[in-house]
Amino acid sequence: QLQLVESGGGLVQPGGSLRLSCAASGFTLDNYAIGWFRQAPGKEREGVSCVSSNSGHTNYADSVKGRFTISRDNAKNTVYLQMNSLKPEDTAVYYCAARLYGSRWGCVYSGMDYWGRGTLVTVSS
Predict the structure, then answer these.
(1) Is the pLDDT of residue 101 over 90?
(2) What is the dihedral sign for C-alpha 107, 112, 114, 118?
(3) Residue 78 Cα distances to 7, 62, 75, 81, angstroms
(4) Interval 2-9 mean pLDDT
(5) Is 15 exposed, middle or buried (0-12, 13-18, 19+ CB in 10 A)?
(6) Which of 5, 77, 82, 124 is the residue whose CA sits 20 to 30 A from 28?
């Protein structure tokens, strides 16, 4: 069964850090661009960060630039999202998604082939 599983969410105080993981099973992530998305209550899902299959290109939403870092370890078939200096407005369910993208140097937030079920991040004091 092909699936992505997110982990690492939880409750954290403002200013704190979390590292989310996205592990693939049933397929290898080597040729897939990966995106992290989030959906806050009452809001639409938005792209947060993405990484190309060769890790040569990354992209970040303006709201997380300088605070979040995406990385991947193809040997572990896992992608990570390191989140620092968290703010209450970062509270959301975070999803990872994979797309078999035509270029190993690009990543996008649309046309994803596989989605995880999400992990909840709550930033609150």
Answers:
(1) no
(2) positive
(3) 11, 24, 8, 10
(4) 96
(5) exposed
(6) 82
